[in-house]
Amino acid sequence: MFTTFTAVLTGLALTWPPVAAAAGSAGGRPLTVSLPAPTLTRPIGTVAVRLVDRSRRDPLAGAKPYRELMVSLWYPARAGGGGLAPHMAPYMAPYMAPKAAADWDRRSAPPMGIAAGAVGWAATRTHARAQAPVDRSGGRLPVVLFGSGDGGPRTLGTTLVEDLAARGYLVVTVDHTYEADQVEFPGGRVVRALPLPGKLTPPVIAKLLAKHSRARLADMRFVLDRLTALARGADLGSGRLPAGLRGAPDLSRVGALGQSLGGSVAAQLLHDDPRVDAAANLDGGYVGPVTTTGVTKPLLQLAAGTHTRGGDRSWKTFWVASTGWKRELRFTGAAHGSFTDLQSLLPPIKAALPKVPAAEFIGTIDPARSLAAQRAFLAAFFDLHLNGRPTHLFDTTETRFPQVRNIP
Known about the structure:
Shape: globular
Number of strands: 13
Strand content: 15-25%
Structural class: alpha/beta
Distance between the termini: 38 Å
Largest sheet: 11 strands, mixed
CATH class: Alpha Beta
CATH topology: Rossmann fold
Strand order of the largest sheet: 3-4-1-2-6-5-9-10-11-12-13
Helix content: 25-40%
Number of helices: 10
């Protein structure tokens, strides 16, 4: 349910009230929104795949004897197999699967103040061509796993994911079934999030987030298992794969990236799974054992303007316990949702629908500068720790982005 996702945008507090009146399209036609192109104009591709883990019962829907997930793989594509030219836009993969987009429109957009039908979500396109052949000219591809905030669909990190794919990474985005607002499976079957408990007291919230965190951690380790098989030339188990994808993952170079609860799980995965070499947390409070164990491997934190170690005890205990390479970057004026695609999608929506309370979700930071900085720091971080490329971007407190400070 979107109640979970809106809670994530307010820092795992689950206290955000629904907007009283959703704003409709002023002209009667759905507003068309688009995503910023990746920094590099390199062709990219994507493929959505259903994965089934029959080794465990579903941890969230206990009556189901297996766990099924939808994932998307994003990667550099061979020339001619995808691209960014305007005339190719109709051939690019959709931002959301059609029935998932319809469900998002009806259930998830209105709590943000956007009336159903006001925005043509299904018309939004990515910059990746579906099933484009993989560009293996540079060898096998380093891997980054991506997880969204609690309740958020895997699509909400597309602006960052596409940028990493264009830089040569194989990025895998994961929907956590029965927690994500909606997940569309092949054939048009939509699975929605389970209802939240009636009374969201702090102990109930903590228990819910711990349960979701454990389920996500098992999901991510299962995805890594499937990627390991894919690296050896095996299939993923369902659906046709793009040419060149089998054998493409380089499991000696693996990163994890997540926003909110996804960031906490990325850190826990870094701690628990020896296959993961580095992780980045996009403004997520820590949940579970990693809160006090910390990590010994490289960890990057990107923080909203008011999210500090002084105000978030989980950040303080994690930071003190972590003994590896670590950096925290604070984005002045950013809010929790600034580290999602809402940073790029809400400003044009608010321009057309002035009543949408965009600042409540994405703060007052300049959206384009915020995204440019996030892309630059994430690329530098993973390039440094997965590819061994030196960088001076983290060397000083004053960064080359005026709105971002490196916090000692």
